[in-house]
From TrEMBL:
<dbReference type="Pfam" id="PF00378">
    <property type="entry name" value="ECH_1"/>
</dbReference>
<protein>
    <recommendedName>
        <fullName>Ethylmalonyl-CoA decarboxylase</fullName>
        <ecNumber>4.1.1.94</ecNumber>
    </recommendedName>
</protein>
<dbReference type="GO" id="GO:0006635">
    <property type="term" value="P:fatty acid beta-oxidation"/>
</dbReference>
<dbReference type="GO" id="GO:0004492">
    <property type="term" value="F:methyl/ethyl malonyl-CoA decarboxylase activity"/>
</dbReference>
<dbReference type="InterPro" id="IPR018376">
    <property type="entry name" value="Enoyl-CoA_hyd/isom_CS"/>
</dbReference>
<keyword id="KW-0456">Lyase</keyword>
<comment type="function">
    <text>Decarboxylates ethylmalonyl-CoA, a potentially toxic metabolite, to form butyryl-CoA, suggesting it might be involved in metabolite proofreading. Acts preferentially on (S)-ethylmalonyl-CoA but also has some activity on the (R)-isomer. Also has methylmalonyl-CoA decarboxylase activity at lower level.</text>
</comment>
<dbReference type="InterPro" id="IPR029045">
    <property type="entry name" value="ClpP/crotonase-like_dom_sf"/>
</dbReference>
<dbReference type="InterPro" id="IPR001753">
    <property type="entry name" value="Enoyl-CoA_hydra/iso"/>
</dbReference>
<comment type="similarity">
    <text>Belongs to the enoyl-CoA hydratase/isomerase family.</text>
</comment>
<dbReference type="GO" id="GO:0005829">
    <property type="term" value="C:cytosol"/>
</dbReference>
<keyword id="KW-0963">Cytoplasm</keyword>
Length: 310
């Protein structure tokens, strides 16, 4: 048993190094770095010129965090400072070693109405637009890659960039009466926060073309039908109080986050590598991640309890 534990420990340290190598290869989970002419400080400074709202993060004992897009007077549109705050919150999630899951929601019963159109008007030149888009692609790609199982809880409307944000989670739950709509075409745009690439992977190219080409409003029923939504939550009567939908989402997510944090995080990592890497590389990464749980506490406990899976 002692030898087994030592072997597990050795494997865990070598596989941590492998995971760190993987993240380094992916520029710490980012798509763009200085190699691509991306200057994070320069664009963050430009974005801070457009303040308003907040992005709040609540890390809970249960291992499930709640990330709230909070600008109700603008239907939770992203101001420039909120884009920078989103990136900071993602960094906090990346360094939360006890975390298992995260729910992304909007404040006051609606998800997110995309970019703050006031900021969009002020930075309507293509150079700055592309820099903002690189910044948001980095932040949302890192969000999707955190070793936590993530769910977008869509209440009310998810429009434009808000629909793109919803695709940057592993799952989407839609509250009754909610809608996800890629309204970009109506704005003379296409998605730029990575939403089109992610949408194709979620619903397939043909459905993505219909949703983007027709700027279709996806209600919960259509969402379930095409695989954009993973579940529908009934919005309670107002007297049942705010927060009930969030509780429902937490309970839905807990079916996947039950268990030891290292195991849940390893589950996300093997799926992430399978989703993103070429097969040979995904297989090697899976072997490395396997090494982090083999002989680990949860594994030894399960062996000692002679668990049956009837
Ligand atoms: C690459 C990213 C691409 C993008 O995200 S482009 C942006 C896409 N989003 C939009 O075009 C949203 C436009 N807004 C709307 O369609 C409607 O406001 C919406 C969200 C359906 C809500 O409709 P209603 O419930 O009737 O409420 P309302 O229109 O009176 O809105 C309440 C207040 O919120 C504001 N608001 C909503 N979305 C916003 C946005 N994206 N940027 C800036 N302000 C926004 C709206 O202007 C209104 O403010 P105010 O009360 O008039 O001062």
């Amino acid at each position: 048993m002692v030898l087994g534990a030592m072997r597990g420990q050795l494997l865990r340290s070598s596989s941590c190094a492998a995971w760190a190598r993987l993240l380094r290869r992916q520029s710490r989970g980012c798509v763009y770095s200085s190699v691509h002419g991306f200057n994070r400080e320069e664009i963050a400074k430009k974005l801070q010129v457009f303040p308003g709202g907040a992005v709040d993060l609540l890390k809970q004992e249960s291992g499930i965090a709640v990330l709230t897009i909070n600008y109700p007077s603008r239907m939770n549109a992203f101001s420039g400072s909120m884009m920078v705050e989103l990136e900071e919150r993602v960094s906090q999630l990346e360094s939360w070693v006890d975390g298992k899951g995260v729910i992304v929601q909007g404040a006051a019963g609606t998800f997110c109405s995309g970019s703050d159109l006031n900021a969009v008007r002020a930075i309507s030149n293509p150079q700055d637009g592309v820099k903002m888009c690189m910044f948001m692609q980095n932040a949302l790609t890192r969000l999707l890659r955190v070793p936590l199982i993530s769910v977008a809880l869509v209440e009310g409307r998810a429009l434009g960039g808000g629909a793109e944000l919803a695709t940057a989670c592993d799952f989407r739950l839609m509250a009754s009466g909610s809608a996800i709509q890629f309204v970009h075409k109506h704005m003379g745009l296409v998605p730029g926060w990575g939403g089109a690439a992610r949408l194709c992977r979620i619903v397939g190219g043909r459905n993505a073309l219909k949703l983007l080409g027709g700027a279709l409003k996806v209600d919960p029923e259509l969402g379930l039908q095409i695989g954009l939504a993973d579940g529908v939550l009934e919005v309670p009567q107002p007297e049942e109080g705010a927060g009930v939908v969030l509780q429902q989402a937490e309970s839905w997510l807990s079916q996947y986050t039950k268990g030891a944090a290292p195991v849940i995080r390893a589950v996300k990592k093997v799926v992430l590598s399978g989703r993103e890497l070429p097969l040979s590389e995904a297989l090697r990464t899976e072997k490395d991640i396997f090494g982090t749980v083999w002989g680990g506490q949860a594994n030894l406990q399960a062996l000692a309890s002679k668990a049956k899976h009837r």
